[in-house]
Give the backbone structure.
Amino acid sequence: MKLDVDQNRVSKILLDFDLTIAFDGGATISFSEVTIDDLTVDEDNQFEGLRAFAALRGLECEDADYDRSGVLRIAFAGGHTVVARPRDEVESWEFCAADGSTILCGPSGVVESWPAPEQPSTDVPTAEGLPSIGSTVVRLSTGDEPTVEFSDGTELQFDLPLDCGYLVLRESVTSSSSSEEGDEAHGDWVIELSSGHVIFYRPRTV
């Protein structure tokens, strides 16, 4: 059975609790465990998986289908392949179409689907802003319009070096300031995280 992403370009790779491929058409596919080429990625090596998935940026999906047992196979230009198999106790993968309709592989390969919601999502998008002390980094993304997103709804709009991902994701903000005191619009921002990692950032839109 096909997923409607054939000939769609990979626009972004995201990592929060799952790895997610986002496509130009608006569809996404998220994985809790997945194999890309010869690398199997799960909760224990997500940052290695993020670096591997980054190779898919800008590539077109050539084929995406799943079978009745819940095995999902995706082929990309350049010979890259992604395979997600069912897990015993948790969801393995979730496809969300641009209209909000969803197909999900639950525990033991039970595949379920839901139609598009009658009302569009009312989720408030994140916006560029200086994160508050105590907020946590909840998502990283690389590709088109890369961001580092925080639990208070703010984001930093830059492509974090992927080797630093483990020092940033799920870490909390311990210090957050502007180099121009009292003027967030013109000064550079300095954000220190609980890991000790420091982000120096020049605002784009504020």
Summary: The CA atoms of residues 13 and 108 lie 26 Å apart.
